[in-house]
């Protein structure tokens, strides 16, 4: 770890000048002194006496002190389970990878301690009369379960207040506003749990459901205390006492010796009460009764905020790149290490103003970074919030911070202006969320007219998985915009409102697409049986697996300070990693697009980004976990325009006569008119339930079609080339490789990948080609006319291992961290155990089969997450890979 000392008006500060995650000391995911974390909780197997159907996708796991904890279900507004002893295992995706950066072996946590109280999957409150049915269950006779919050007419989660060790749970039941303060207390060696309430607007009677005892045998009441005896010998008791200022008192009741409720009758007065709960040996019953008699109702004042949890500032110094290209990346050094030994894996960034921004981490923290200027010499990092549930998006609207995680969209408030959030307001949780870890809260962008668009992962259990949705400006409603997405990430033009998305290659998604999104669109990943018959909207463009096997969000460059990228869409590649420039070609009845790669230093995966309103540059965040080719754990960089010449195309057209690429620099005519300097291929994909797709010619046979280049031409201004290709037709993927020179002598050796959705005649005169073209010229027999078959060799196999993106998922050694597939060293000749219980010796035939039909037999411990290379690699290529893998 590199350090230096910065000396200034604040005195001497240790300054972090570089990040080394491998040597940094990372503290525990659960921080001492912060009262909660958020995540799923499976309490279906608590044991005898507890309800068997009890899981919660959105749980506040609250530390009540003295080894007592409660899980508050933010959807059903209930205590799902209260326990003592050990806390929770850190096994969710964000937790298990927190200090084991590439570990994706996540699970749904269950409590580690001893359960004391629980309720089943029904609302924590009911109106008018007790009810123990989940109001979210569908009444269509299918028995299907619905995730997400209660209907708002029954209840709404408002948010959590923080004040030191205390939390205040704010929600509304019917028309009654409720503040709840959970707590615990000890009497002797026993732990009791408490729920302190303040209720305003009791226009209807409400029933609080505090516990469900499934093996209760008899019930007894002593004043305001209820006892349920259970166990085979009735030597265990669950006791509930109520202390209240309400006239006549509040008395708990038991229904069927099982469901314990407390009725709060209608009144026009504020009601404050405390419910005390305990489960233990019958011999301690009198001690519990004595403790309840001494209990007072004491509600903390949450509305004024509390002391700051984190008071220190962490200083870092950025690293400027030399101006060696049109676009370079400057590194904004992250606050690692820091006083809390907190890992900082930045997922997204948003700006307050030019110098001050907020970043959110996958671990659930929000940091405020100040001092962002041209030099990056003195960045000041302060922690602002924590405990959020795998967030990957942040936005700032009217100075307020909004974070999208699996709990929904949270709006953060600093009530006492001490630089730390005190109120985590539920802006919107109307989107459903299942317990499945891959039902990501993938992305959120601010809508130009107010509200937000969000994207949810498509692998999960909710009815809204795989969708793009619009959140209303007041946060109270969500509207489905598009469906059929496997793992979407989105972007939007901030003024024009053009909405875009990418998706994750996999089942039914044959390669990485870039999509334009409109109301009612369906993109091909089925989440219901009806989807298999729906009309699929085709992408703006596909991107080949070897070019980008895992896409992420998009960002439009606005502000007029990024030169040739101004008003262009940027596509973020997680796996490559890096940024792609997206070009759009509008035809009479369709739009089609293409991409080219912006070469720069990308020290970690690139996922999200924001335009700084002051300098107009693009700031990029990302972290590693899902198999990127980058070894970096996380990075925060600035893509900066240096005013050096830029050599990627700025416009393209694909039509009857071929392909036109227009550059921002004048080209060397001799190179441009030489057709051997171009190579053109095309192929289709197949959408199937298999992971990804091979490449197929237009007649359906495996392979890629090499298109003869008949001629090439330069425009009058020498900035555009026409590559003449006959038999142009609609096709999913085309690849144009070119080897050109600029007029000033710079090398333009690159590629452009695009999709043809409609073929029409190109207006060549409008494109700058005024000289008549001789269409009778024979095609070139050079660079583009044929693919040279190399003789199989280990050396060629090693090159293909990298060029075909195999190295992003498989280690050539024995490493497993960060790799989706099994390591390949020593694999040849070994016995391969498969998920179906069979096994086979890894010989040449097995390796060939694994390349061409990877999902046919899946190795134990791994998923079917490798695309077929059928039609992608030649027979010679496959034999070279076999030789290379044998050599390992």
Description:
The protein has 888 residues and is mainly β. The chain has four domains: 36-297, Beta-galactosidase, Chain A, domain 5 (Distorted Sandwich); 314-641, TolB, C-terminal domain (Neuraminidase, 6 Propeller); 651-756, Immunoglobulin-like, CATH 2.60.40; 794-887, Orthogonal Bundle (Cytochrome Bc1 Complex, Chain D, domain 2), CATH 1.10.760. It has six helices and 55 strands. It has a twelve-stranded antiparallel sheet. Strands 39-40-41-42-53-52-48-49 form an eight-stranded antiparallel sheet, with no helix packed on it. Strand 50 (711-714) and strand 51 form a beta hairpin. Helix 4 (794-803) crosses helix 6 (875-887). It is elongated, with a radius of gyration of 31 Å. The protein starts with a strand and ends with a helix. Mean pLDDT is 93; it is low at 1-10.
């Amino acid at each position: 770890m590199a350090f230096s000392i910065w000396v200034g008006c604040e005195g001497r500060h240790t300054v972090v000048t570089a990040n080394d995650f491998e040597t940094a000391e990372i503290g525990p995911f659960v921080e001492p002194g912060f009262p909660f974390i958020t995540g799923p909780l499976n309490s279906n197997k608590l044991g005898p006496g507890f309800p068997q159907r009890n899981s919660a996708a959105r749980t506040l796991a609250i530390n009540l002190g003295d080894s007592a904890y409660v899980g508050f279900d933010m959807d059903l507004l209930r205590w799902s389970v209260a326990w003592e002893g050990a806390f929770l295992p850190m096994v969710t995706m964000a937790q298990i990878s927190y200090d084991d950066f590439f570990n994706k072996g996540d699970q749904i946590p269950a409590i580690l301690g001893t359960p004391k109280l629980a309720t089943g999957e029904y609302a924590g409150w009911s109106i008018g009369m007790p009810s123990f049915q989940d109001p979210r269950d569908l009444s269509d006779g299918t028995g299907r379960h619905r995730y997400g919050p209660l209907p708002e007419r029954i209840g709404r989660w408002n948010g959590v207040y923080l004040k030191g060790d205390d939390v205040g749970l704010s929600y509304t039941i019917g028309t009654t506003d409720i503040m709840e303060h959970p707590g615990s207390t000890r009497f002797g060696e026993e732990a009791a749990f408490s729920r302190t309430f303040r209720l305003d607007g009791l226009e209807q009677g409400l029933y609080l459901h505090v516990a469900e005892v499934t093996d209760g045998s008899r019930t007894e009441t002593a004043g305001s205390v209820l006892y349920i005896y259970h166990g085979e010998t009735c030597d265990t008791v669950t006791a509930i006492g109520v202390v209240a200022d309400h006239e006549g008192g509040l008395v708990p009741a038991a229904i069927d010796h099982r469901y314990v409720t407390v009725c709060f009758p209608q009144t026009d007065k504020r009601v404050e009460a405390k419910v005390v709960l305990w489960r233990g040996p019958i011999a301690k019953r009198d001690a519990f009764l004595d403790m309840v008699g001494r209990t007072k109702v004491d509600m903390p004042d949450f509305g004024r905020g509390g002391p700051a949890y984190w008071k220190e500032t962490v200083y870092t110094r950025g690293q400027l790149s030399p101006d060696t290209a049109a676009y370079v990346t400057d590194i904004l050094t992250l606050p690692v290490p820091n006083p809390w030994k907190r890992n900082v894996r930045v997922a997204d960034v948003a700006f307050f103003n030019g110098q001050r921004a907020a970043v959110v981490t996958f671990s659930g923290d929000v940091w405020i970074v100040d001092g962002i200027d041209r030099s990056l010499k003195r960045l000041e990092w302060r922690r602002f919030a924590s405990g959020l549930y795998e967030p990957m998006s942040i936005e700032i609207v009217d100075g307020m911070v909004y974070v999208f995680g699996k709990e929904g969209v949270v709006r953060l408030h600093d009530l006492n202006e001490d630089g730390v959030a005190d109120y985590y307001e539920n802006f919107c949780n109307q989107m459903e969320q299942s317990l499945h870890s891959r039902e990501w809260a993938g992305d959120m962008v601010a809508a130009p007219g107010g509200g937000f668009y969000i994207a949810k992962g498509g692998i999960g259990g909710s009815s809204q998985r795989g969708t793009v949705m619009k959140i209303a400006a007041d946060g109270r409603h969500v509207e489905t915009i598009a469906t059929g997405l496997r793992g979407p990430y989105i972007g939007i033009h901030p003024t024009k409102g053009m909405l875009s998305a990418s998706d994750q290659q996999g089942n039914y998604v044959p390669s990485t697409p870039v999509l334009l999104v409109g109301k009612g669109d369906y993109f091909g990943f089925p989440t219901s049986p009806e989807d298999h018959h729906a009309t699929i909207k085709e992408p703006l463009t596909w991107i080949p697996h070897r070019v980008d096997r895992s896409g992420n969000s998009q960002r439009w460059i606005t502000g007029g300070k990024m030169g040739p990228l101004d008003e262009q869409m940027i596509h973020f590649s997680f796996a490559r990693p890096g940024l792609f420039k997206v070009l759009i070609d509008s035809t009479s009845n369709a739009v089609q697009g293409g991409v080219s790669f912006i070469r720069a230093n990308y020290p970690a995966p690139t996922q999200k980004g924001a335009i700084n309103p002051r300098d107009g540059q693009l700031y990029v965040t990302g972290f590693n976990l899902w198999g990127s080719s980058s070894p970096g754990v996380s990075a925060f960089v600035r893509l900066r325009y240096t005013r050096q010449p830029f050599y990627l195309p700025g416009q393209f057209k694909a039509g009857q006569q071929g392909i036109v690429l227009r550059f921002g620099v004048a080209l060397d005519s001799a190179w441009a008119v030489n057709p051997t300097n171009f190579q053109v291929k095309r192929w289709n994909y197949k959408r199937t339930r298999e992971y990804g797709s091979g490449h197929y010619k237009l007649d359906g046979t495996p392979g890629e079609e090499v298109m003869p280049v008949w001629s090439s031409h330069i425009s009058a201004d020498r900035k555009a080339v026409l590559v003449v290709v006959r038999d142009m037709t609609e096709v999913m993927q085309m690849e144009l490789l070119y080897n050109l020179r600029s007029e000033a002598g710079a090398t333009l050796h690159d590629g452009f990948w695009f999709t043809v959705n409609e073929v029409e005649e190109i207006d060549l005169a409008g494109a700058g080609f005024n000289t008549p073209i001789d269409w009778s010229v024979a095609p070139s027999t050079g660079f583009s006319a044929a693919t040279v078959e190399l003789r199989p060799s280990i050396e060629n196999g090693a090159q293909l291992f990298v060029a075909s993106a195999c190295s992003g998922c498989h280690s050539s050694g024995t490493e497993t961290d960060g790799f989706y597939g099994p390591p390949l060293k020593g694999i040849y000749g070994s016995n391969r155990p498969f998920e179906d219980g069979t096994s086979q010796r890894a010989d040449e035939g097995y390796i060939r089969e694994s390349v061409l039909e990877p999902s046919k037999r899946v190795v134990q411990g791994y998923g079917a997450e490798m695309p077929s290379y059928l039609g992608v690699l030649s027979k010679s290529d496959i034999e070279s890979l076999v030789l290379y893998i044998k050599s390992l």
